[in-house]
Amino acid sequence: MLQRRPLIAGNWKMNGTLLDGTALVQALVERLGGDTHGFDLLVCPPFTLLHAAVQLSLSSSLNIGGQDCHTAEKGAYTGDISAGMLSDLGCRYVILGHSERRADHSESDALVNSKTRTAWDAGLVAIVCVGETESERDTGCTLDVIAKQIADSIPGDATEVNTVVAYEPVWAIGTGRTATPEEAQEVHAFIRKSLVDRFGEHAAGIRILYGGSMKPSNATELLALADVDGGLIGGASLNADDFWEIAQSCA
Ligand code: PGA
User: Fold this and answer.
1) Which spans in the chain are helix H?
2) Per-residue model confidence (pLDDT) at position 34
3) What is the pLDDT of residues 188-197, one digit of tens each?
4) What is the pLDDT of residues 9-19, one digit of tens each?
5) How many CB atoms sit inside 10 A of residue 20's CB?
6) Residues 92-109: pLDDT tens digits?
7) Cα 102 to ligand 1 centre (Å)
8) For 56-63, what is the mean pLDDT?
9) Which atom belonging to ligand 1 lies closest to the Cα atom of 232?
10) 1, 42, 171, 209: which could form a disulfide with 63 (CB 3.0–4.6 Å)?
């Protein structure tokens, strides 16, 4: 059977000063030590902390990633960051198409698709986020919404090496509400099948993370699901003990 190494990813969003952000990275580096664990650990701090985080992570297996990047390699884009800049700093991953960016910055599937390509070109692994809103779930459109986001946000040539998908029901993000194991497994299995249908058998190796109010108390159940290969964790990733406990639950 195909083995997918679990990925536990922390999305810090717009949180963390130099002092508390570096302390959090340091705490995770200490927990990881030099041991080989049964999972990959990743943190995605705000841009201001990336350099410090990468430097602190060098003695460990901790991965550092960005939370967004621009579609262009460089140029007159005030306030933006390119994929190449992330890669240059030592980042390995970038989160793309998070629902907060889709909602607050009007990011379309086409834009996310183009960002994903740019991320690949810079050698980054793209974590492409998809997820339905509460009203889309209530009206029974969840799988249609996910199918469209997957088809339009992920370019051709996605592989298990360059792409991770994060399923994050919008109604579960930061709300304390989590998808039930049945709801999560249904969508994850659907995403897996969509990827295999489109890219071929190897795409069964693309990791699919669950995100949305994952915490130590529900992580074991969610991470045990057949098609859940890890988590994208917001709030609970800001506390080293909680984040570590979640990672331990997939060990
Ligand atoms: P949450 O956020 O864990 O705080 O719900 C998850 C995310 O938005 O990636």
Assistant:
1) 18-32, 47-57, 83-89, 99-104, 109-121, 134-138, 142-153, 181-199, 216-223, 240-248
2) 78
3) 999 999 999 9
4) 999 999 999 99
5) 12
6) 999 999 999 999 999 999
7) 14
8) 95
9) 9
10) 42
Annotation says 168 is catalytic: yes
182 as an active site residue: the answer is no
Q: Tell me which of 70, 98, 107, 160 is the catalytic residue.
A: 98
Ligand 1 binding residues, C-beta < 6 A? 11, 168, 173-174, 211-214, 232-236
Q: How far apart are CA 232 and CA 224, in angstroms?
A: 15
CA angle 162, 246, 223 (to 5 degrees): 65
Q: Residue range 168-182: average pLDDT?
A: 95
Which of 12, 165, 213 gets mutated to test ligand 1 (max ligand atoms within 8 A of its CB)? Answer: 213
Amino acid identity, position 131 = G
For residue 131, which phi and psi values (nearest 5 degrees)? Answer: 165, 150
The three state secondary structure string of 64-118 is EEECCCCCCCCCCCCCCCCHHHHHHHCCCEEEECCHHHHHHCCCCHHHHHHHHHH
Q: Which amino acid belongs to residue 26? A: Q
List the domain boundaries for the chain: 60-71+79-248
- Taking only the tens place, the pLDDT of each residue in 209-248 is 999 999 999 999 999 999 999 999 999 999 999 999 999 9
From residue 166, how far is each of 22, 68, 196, 210 by CA, in Å? 26, 14, 16, 6
Contact 188, 228 (CB under 8 A): yes
